Structure formats: C-alpha cells, structure tokens
Amino acid sequence: MRRGNLAPVVAAVALLLAAVAVCGTLLVGLDASTAISSYLITNVAIGLSATPGGFLIARRRPSSPIGWLLLGLGCAPLLTAATVPLIAAGHESGWPQPVLRLLVTVLNFAWGWGLFCCLPLALQLFPTGRPVTPAWRWLGWLTLVTAVVSGFSTGPTPEYGASSYFVSSWWQTGEQLGGVLTPLVMLATVISLIVRFAKAGEVVRQQLLWLVVAVVLVILVNSPSWFSVPTGKEIFLLLSFPLIPAAMTVAVLRYRLFDVRLVLSRLLLYGALSAAVIAAYTALVALLERLLSSAGAPVLATLAVALAFNPVRLRLQRLIDHWLYGARRDPVRAVSVVGRQLAGDDLTGVLDALCAALRLPYAAIERGAECVAVSGTRPDDVVTVELRHHDEVAGLLVVGARRGERQLSKPDTAVLGLLAGPLAVALHSTALREQLRESHDRLLTATSDERERLHRDLHDSLGPVLTGAAFTADGAALAARSDPERAEQLATQLAGQLRAAIADVRRIVYALRPPVLDELGLVAALRGHSSGLGRIALTVEAPDSLPRLPAPVELAAYRIASEALTNVARHSAARRATVSLTADSGALTVTVTDDGRSQRAWPAGVGLESIRARAAELGGACELGPTAHGGRVAAVLPLGGGR
Length: 643
What we know:
- The protein is α+β, with helices and mostly antiparallel strands.
- It has helices spanning about 5-30, 30-35, 40-60, 65-95, 95-125, 135-150, 170-200, 200-220, 235-240, 245-255, 260-290, 295-325, 330-340, 345-360, 410-480, 485-510, 515-520, 520-525, 550-570, 605-615; strands spanning about 360-365, 370-375, 380-390, 390-400, 535-540, 575-585, 585-595, 620-625, 630-640.
- A 5-stranded mixed β-sheet has the order 5-6-7-9-8. The chain has a 4-stranded antiparallel β-sheet with strand order 2-1-4-3.
- Helix 11 runs antiparallel to helix 12 (about 295-325) and helix 15 packs antiparallel against helix 16.
- The radius of gyration is 44 Å and the shape is elongated.
- The model is unreliable at about 225-235 (pLDDT under 50).
C-alpha cells in the first residue's frame, strides 16, 4: 500500500475514536465537570483539529513527515478520550481488573505521545520536513527520549479503580526528569524555529509566519488566564490549541491563500492595543480613585483611554507595518535608503536595498531581453514599472508581489514611482559604461591584431625582400669595376627587388586598419566619407544595432565600401550614392549603389580587383557592374570567416 493511501485509514481510525469518546460519554452519562476535568473535551478538540490537517498533508504530500506527525497528534489524544467513558462504564459495571488496567494504561500512555512527541517533532521539521541543519538532529532524539520517559513514568491511579501496567517504583523520579526535559525540548524547538526563520528564504518565512499568527491568537485568546497554570476547568488554552495544526496545514498546502503579513499586522496591532488599553485603564482607575476618592474615577479613566486610543493605534500601526512591509509608508525614507546604493554604481546592490526597504521577494531591471540585475527569486505574480530617461524607455523595473498578494498596494506603487527616475538614470549610465567598455575592448583587440599582422608582414614579406636588395646592391658595387656587364644585370635585379618592396609597403599600408573604425564604428566611419565625395550625396542605411563583427570582416566591409565610393566619385556622373549594410547570424552584406548611368561593362582595374580579393579572402562573394538604375557593388562577407 502506498503511503498516501494509508492516510485515509489513519484518519478513519481517528474519527472512530472520536465517535467512541462522544457516544460513550452520552451513553454513560458523564456530567460536564467530569468531561472537563478528565480533559475529554480538550482531547477531542485537539484530536479533531489535528487529524484533518494531517490527513490533507499526508494525502497530498505523503513524503512529508509533518502530515503523519499531525495524524499522530490527532490519534493520541482521541485514543485517550475514547478510554474515559469506557473506564467509567467498566468501573460502574465491575469489569475484570485486567481490562480496566489495560484501559488505564492506554489512557495514561497515549496522551503524552501526542503533545510531547508528535507536536514538537512536527514543529522541529516544519515546514520543509527536514531539521534546520543536520546538526539539529539531536533535538529529535531528545524529544523521543523525553516522550519515552514521560510515557513510562506512571504512578498509581486509585480514582479509576485500577492502575496502569506501567506503574513502577521510580515513577516520581521519571516525572521529575520529564518535567525538566519537556521545557528544554519546547525551548529548543522554539529556538530552532527562530533559527530556521533567520536562515530561510522568502517562501519558508511566509510559511513560518502562519505559525506565528496561530501562536499570537492562542496568546490573545488566553490572555485573561495567561499567568495561571491551566487545569481541567480552565480549558481555553487547550481549546485554542487547534489553531496551531490548522495554521501548519495552511502553511504547507495553501500559504498564499491570504496575505499573512496583513493578518499578522492586524493581530499584533489589536493585541498590543488590547493589552495597552487594559493596562492603562486599570492604572488610571487606581490612580484616580486614590486622588479623587469618588465614583467618577472610572469615567475619567475611560475618557483618557478613549482620547489616547487613536494616536497610540496609529503609532503602533506604523511600527508594525514597518516591520512587515518596510518603508513603503515613508517614500522619502525608502528613496533615501535606495539612493545611498545608487552612488556605488552597483545595480544589484540597489535592488537588494529596494527589496530590503519594501520587504519585497524579488526585483529585477530588464533592458530588452537582457536582465541587467536581479535580486531574489522571481514569484508568479510580478509588477512592471517603466524606467524612462528623456521620454524614452530605458528599461523595465520588474518587482515581485509579496507572498499572499496579487498586486502591490498604492503606497508601494508611490515609492516605485519615485524610484523609477533615479533608476532610469542609473540604467542609462550603466549602458553608457558598457558601450565605453566594449569600445575600449574593440580598440585593444584591433590594435593587438594590427600589431601582430604588421609584425608578420614586415618579418615574413618586406624584410627578406629588403635583405635581398641589400645583397644585390653589394654585388653590383663589387662588379662595377671588374665586370660592368654583370654590374648592370645586378642593378636591374636590384630595381626589381626595390619595386617588389615598394609593392609590399603599399600592400601593408593599404591593409592598415583605419583608426576611425575604432573611434566611431563601421556605420559612422562610412558616413564620414560624405565630405570627400564632392557633389555626390551619400546615404548610409544600416539597422539600429549590428551584431558584433570580427575585426577582419569590419575592415573588409569598410575597404570595399570605400573603394566603391572612390570609383563612384572618379568614374561616374552620379548625384547620389547609397551604402546599405544588412546582417544576419551568418554574414554581413555590403551594397553600394549610385544613380550614374553606364552603357558598357566596367573594365577590370586595381580597385575592382581589390574589392573581389577582399571578399574572397574571407570566403565571401562579390557582384559588381552597371545596372539599369546605375552602378552596383554587392559583397557578402561570412562572419565566421573573420574568427
């Protein structure tokens, strides 16, 4: 049988025990005082409150021990409650002593396992189903030891007409030891919850707050008798106990059902107000009766409390809201806190400060498809605020709604509205810094590549040519007197070598990367050609942002377009010229067109051959020649060819 299928069986057993307790009480005719003093009513209330929650959690999440511990917390007191009417009936009817002793044993043994074992273990594992850290496992073992000691430390019970089978001579020592261990376990359990809250993320903290709400409610319900030890006749403490398993169930399964922070805020506010009103009223009545010695003291105390109530309420509300929601009711303070981080040029730190100031689970700054900075974990419900700089959308501020909230409140929106301007400026500054850094990186890369190419060309090409020319010159000088004919041959050879060197120098100079490419970029560098074209009007068409081009591709595109524009200016009667740049993931296309008419094919020349050679070097293709609308040069340069 799967563990999840076992949950209905355990829940059914718990309901059967509750039915035995209730029906048995009615059949036996136990009076109200007996039902209260024997804890029958409170045990039934605790058992019936813990069982549904345990069933739901165990059914939905059978791997979580919390559901099974809550089922144990429900079954243990119900088993005790079911034995109360059975013991009463057996005592009156004279049941055999072994049967009565068995019932008394179950009554004394079962009760403690619920409250002193299952409940502390459930709290220690709440809400994740695991201890805070492996180092806290000792607390679970101590809880089990305490439950065993308390369960087996049973004394005589003559009031039932029989005693438990577990009665021993050391039961008083066991009770004393249990009385020491139980508070220690409870205190350590509370400390483990505090440590878990301090270390946990937003989701776990939200779940733990539900438990805090239940504990606050228990305190408020029992405030009149909080300083007295609960007895069988003071059952409010135990009757309010069902709030704890109910809160644990909501926290595990439906912690986003309500805004738990708002619930806790109101509970703390009105709890503190109630305590303050009672204390102030009591103190004023006592003081005024001493001073006035008249019957008007309660009236004057009531008026004083009524006048002070609203200012105190507002002050307490601000304090509690600041604890739960941060500085959202004080926009100036929130902006000041975030503004201190803006001075550090760290957008992530700014978002961290924003989340801390408003108690938000998530904040991010997005620019297009890029997430520039992020803080926290993105929830399902987010709110987007535009960051505008000079009437342009510089990016988006994406803020996550608090757990239990579908949207942000008006105070939250007001704070974000005030922060949008400074954040937009910071985002714009960040974009400018990134562009400057990228430009600097491109310049360094291009400079390094250019130096390496120059070193290779000078060492491998021009150097050997000049060295050979020097040797030839020396040979010609030696042969000038003895062999004039040989000297003439060497002089001719030297002239050829010098021409080759000149050609190499021209090639090297021609291949140098123009600084304007690194200073302005490809598009702006091409637009700069308009000043050298005279009467020709130049238009450069390009997308808003080209992909990052390898340095060889960018240089080839610039040289091809420059050579084509030079040919337009020298050899055509065009009035307009257009350079078009288009790019996709695989290639850059450079197209140069003009409106000059030509009736014949373009003759081959150095310029056209240079265009073809530059495209071929990168594995690209080139088409050039006259068209019906004017001249056209189109080169396709693979982006991979420059890597």
